[in-house]
Specification:
This protein is an alpha/beta fold. The chain folds into three domains: 6-261, Rossmann fold; 270-380, Succinyl-CoA synthetase domains (Rossmann fold), CATH 3.40.50.261; 450-569, ATP-grasp fold, B domain (D-amino Acid Aminotransferase, Chain A, domain 1, 2-Layer Sandwich). It is 36% helix and 21% strand. It has 18 helices and 24 strands. The strands form five sheets. A seven-stranded mixed β-sheet has the order 9-8-11-10-12-13-14, with helices on both faces. Helix 11 (299-309) runs antiparallel to helix 12 (329-340) and helix 12 crosses helix 13 (361-378). The two termini are 33 Å apart. The model has no long low-confidence stretch (mean pLDDT 89).
Length: 572
């Protein structure tokens, strides 16, 4: 039975189960955000806590709460969760320590975060069920973030860099009983959530991740994963699910700003106007390192820009327009409009931090006014990027958001974020099902008979090279590994290059993988059928193949021939 998060995420009653001091801290957060619904402290021996009536036990509550925040440990926490589940509570957050298995059994189908969950700040419902500091303000619409550490959550809440955060939850890895993907689906289903950010060093069930991504696709929303690792299996899973990965909290926040305002970017084409005169080349080099494109302006654009910027200006993209910053707002607007009307799907105005830009805040305000006018006229996405790594002042960032502009901060973080948003709009971003290994694949494996394996592969159409024979040219190495966290990870290697994907391969994916390895057209045409034959063999083994290696070379008649076959599988 699917968990119903409706009451958990829109609580009209919150029970607090813990000490009077702890309850008082949470009550202060609730009051500070303007929560107007019922608060029920459950504190034995107390009549009131922070001016609110207290209850001696859960049995004394008027009814089962929509959400309970539990500060108890061990058997007491398990008993409270069991009572809440049995009496129809909407969900619980367990901050204290207890055995996860016992808590999960007690919760049943009731939504539960914990143990060790620091809480949830729900700015939509003004319900910060949280006992630590935070700097979030109540919002009507914004992004949701699920962090896997309390320190990151506190950092995000205190320095949101102008991003409207609607919900911020902490669910520590391997401990939250409600799965990461299930919570993500529930958040995405709220029409007030514009995009979702997940800190996901521990991914959980790959099929649940795909299901969450399918929900996001159906709702037209995007998901960004914060994850430091670069494992091929994880990256292939993110691509299969239609998710994008960033590797720093700063890039996560910048990506979510872009997604909140405009959604995923439909093409890899950006324009940039550098208002400080010194960042153009740096922006181009750092953008190229992230795989971003700054296409040249058209002849028509160059002609108009030359009229406004003057003769002798280098009209490259990114464009140095520092000489125009102090001109009139209408003239500056024309320059921005012209840059926005070419191939670019998003335009950046790059300035120093508003407190340090030459000419002071007045120049920043002039650029922002012209940008807002250009945004209204053209309607394409437009971001103002402060070059310093520090956040924009909150009042400036909020003012930019109010007129549809995207406030970005820090060049490295912004470019990493833009690359993620481009990836989210790419051609292979539709979530697709996985071929998963059997739970016991590789367990108790015995060396299979090589001849039997060769015959099995040949029976699915794979042409085998004679024993000891090597064809011309360098070998294309194939390695297939069953990884429960991702599925079947297929890796192709040649000359130091490597590409990975998950089985089953999607339409056109084998050719794209080989093209990325630098294979020529004829070789691609020869190898694609061989790859599909290997896939057919693995599917026929019903998830019992644990690992497979082989190499491809072109045969005399053009077809790819396989050699060096090694396999590890569980005997039937």
């Amino acid at each position: 039975m699917a968990r119903d998060f409706s009451r958990f995420l829109r609580p009209k009653s919150v029970a607090l189960i813990g000490s009077s001091e702890w309850c008082a801290a949470v009550i202060a957060n609730l009051r500070g955000m303007g929560y107007v619904w019922d608060i029920w402290p459950v504190v034995g021996g107390e009549d009131q806590v922070a001016g609110i009536r207290a209850y001696a036990g859960l049995d004394a509550l008027p009814e089962a709460p929509d959400l309970a925040f539990i500060s108890q440990d061990g058997p007491d926490a398990v008993a409270s969760v069991a009572w809440l589940a049995q009496h129809g509570a909407g969900g619980a957050i367990c901050q204290g320590e207890a055995l996860p298995a016992e808590l999960g059994l007690a919760a049943g189908d009731m939504p539960l975060l914990g143990p060790g969950c620091q809480g949830v700040i729900n700015a939509l419902e003004r319900a910060p069920v949280w006992d630590g500091p935070h700097g979030l303000q109540a919002v009507k619409r914004g992004v949701a973030i699920v962090a896997r550490s309390a320190s990151l959550a506190e950092r995000l809440s205190l320095q949101p860099r102008g991003l409207p955060i609607a919900v911020l939850a902490v669910a520590e890895p391997g401990r939250a009983q409600t799965g990461l993907a299930r919570l993500g689906e529930a958040l995405l289903s709220d029409e007030r959530i514009s995009a979702l950010g997940l800190q996901a060093e521990d991914l959980g069930d790959p099929e649940a991740l795909i299901a969450m991504a399918q929900t996001a696709e159906r709702l037209g929303k995007s998901i960004v994963i914060l994850r430091a690792g670069r494992e091929p299996g994880a990256q292939a899973l993110f691509e299969r699910a239609g998710l994008a990965q960033v590797r720093s909290p700063e890039a996560l926040l910048e990506a979510l700003k872009i997604l909140h305002v405009t959604g995923a970017l439909p093409a890899n084409a950006l324009a940039a106007l550098c208002c400080d005169g010194s960042t153009g080349e740096l922006l181009r080099e750092m953008g190229q390192a992230q795989g971003l494109r700054f296409p040249a302006f058209s002849e028509a654009q160059r002609a108009v820009l030359a009229q406004d910027l003057g003769a002798g200006m280098a009209l490259a993209n990114p464009l140095d327009c520092s000489s125009a910053v102090q001109r009139s707002v209408p003239r500056l607007t024309r320059i921005i409009v012209e840059a926005m009307t070419g191939q670019a799907v998003m335009t950046l105005l790059v300035l120093d931090h508003p407190d340090t830009v030459e000419g002071g805040a007045a120049d920043w305000d002039r650029v922002a006014e012209a940008a807002a006018a250009a945004r209204r006229r053209v309607g394409m996405p437009l971001g103002l990027l402060a070059t310093g790594s520090e956040a924009l002042p909150a009042d400036r960032a909020e003012a930019l958001l109010a007129v549809g502009l995207i406030p970005l901060s820090g060049v490295p973080a912004a470019l990493e974020a833009l690359a993620a948003c481009v990836a989210l709009g790419g051609p292979l971003r539709l979530p697709a099902p996985l071929l998963l290994p059997a739970p016991d694949a590789g367990v108790g494996a015995v060396p299979p008979d090589p001849g039997e394996i060769r015959r099995g592969l040949a029976g699915h159409g794979l042409r085998m090279a004679p024993e000891g024979a090597d064809g011309p040219g360098p070998a294309l190495e194939l390695h297939l590994l069953a990884e429960p966290a991702y599925g079947y990870v297929l890796t192709l290697r040649r000359d130091g290059g490597e590409v990975s994907a998950l089985l089953p391969l999607r339409q056109g994916e084998p050719a794209r993988l080989l093209d990325r390895l630098g294979c020529e057209r004829g070789e691609i045409e020869a190898v694609v059928p061989a790859l599909l034959s290997v896939q057919d063999y693995v599917i026929a083994q019903k998830g019992m193949v644990a690992e497979l290696e082989l190499a491809f070379r072109r045969g005399a008649r053009g077809a790819a021939l396989a050699s060096g076959v090694k396999i590890r599988a569980v005997s039937a």
